[in-house]
Amino acid sequence: MASPLLTFLTGRAGGRGVETVVPQRTFADVILPPTTRRTLDEALAQVRNHALIFTRWGLGERHTTGLGLAFNFAGLPGTGKTICAEAIAHELGMKLLVVNYAEVESMWMGETPKNIVAAFRSATEQRAVLFFDEADAIATRRSAGPVVSYDRESNTVVNVLLRELEAFNGVVIFATNLASNFDPAFERRIRTHVRFEMPGIDEREKIWKVQIHPSRTPLARDVDFRALAERFEISGGDIKNAVLKAATAAAAEPLPDREKRIHQSHLERAVAEVLAAKDVMRQSLFDQKPKFVAPNVAVFIASAALIFAIAALVIVLLR
Ligand SMILES: Nc1ncnc2c1ncn2[C@@H]1O[C@H](COP(=O)(O)OP(=O)(O)OP(=O)(O)O)[C@@H](O)[C@H]1O
Ligand SMILES: [Mg+2]
Hints:
The protein is α/β, with parallel strands linked by helices. It folds into two domains: 4-196, Rossmann fold (3-Layer(aba) Sandwich), CATH 3.40.50.300; 201-286, Helicase, Ruva Protein, domain 3, CATH 1.10.8. Helix content is 55%, strand content 11%. It is built from 14 helices and six strands. It has helices at residues 4-10, 34-56, 59-62, 81-92, 101-107, 112-126, 136-140, 149-167, 184-189, 201-210, 225-231, 236-251, 264-286, 297-318, and strands at 18-21, 69-75, 95-100, 128-133, 171-176, 190-196. A six-stranded mixed β-sheet has the order 1-3-4-5-2-6, sandwiched between helices. The structure holds adenosine-5'-triphosphate and magnesium ion (MG).
């Protein structure tokens, strides 16, 4: 059986938690407000100069720790943090090692520090940009007072992360939401915070346009992206979901394929659905009451099978 560490690194645990991607999306696919774009460009310049200073100018041999570059991408969901991490890796000609921190922590309780070390090692070996997605959980947890065991693990995680960051000579990106508070020691290791703002009208209009294929997506004449951008103050992620929903609805119309078109009404209805789905999510997040958890049938059957197998073994041994 594969070790948890190996499974973690190869991402074979149902593909959850960690994966290495060869970046496909580039900055041509991303539309950002000017301030976000500027900060990102500065971050990229730092990465490029870093290679110049520490490799070509030899300073990496004189200074062997604290050479890594850590960035925090902070912003609301769907504002383009993941796509930009991919675009940065693409720009640098590197792979992207994506660690979904929230999933890893919940899946590998007790193994998290070990897995963090493994992720840094793997990023070094693959020369990949290391991307800790949904890293909010790392940000707030280290506590100084008396600790319970869960806190103790969180403290260890942050300490291990700090140590690994100190030793790592590559690029690490954390993605968090805007409310995250970093531990001061951790904060010192973050070179730049890039704030991902919600797109304004002009950006939204362009995001609507990049979400469709420039020549192959059949749009009806009444489609007006400017009007959609003015009317709906939504994130790029919502726009993407709305485009896919509208396309699905248009494709389901009872017409021959060559007559099918995405109309403005498809797009408007799709936005309404996306917004309604978000409302449901919000309610289910905040209205959660303790529920009776039904016993898991699979666990029950497995236990019965185990007891049966042990009984059979005992009978065989006694004979
Ligand atoms: N600024 C943008 N320009 C173009 N497309 C965007 C932009 N923002 C989001 N999108 C679209 O929405 C999708 C989701 O965005 P992305 O996953 O990068 O958001 P995120 O900030 O990482 O969200 P989350 O916090 O939920 O992880 C992208 O794949 C892309 O298609
Ligand atoms: Mg993301």
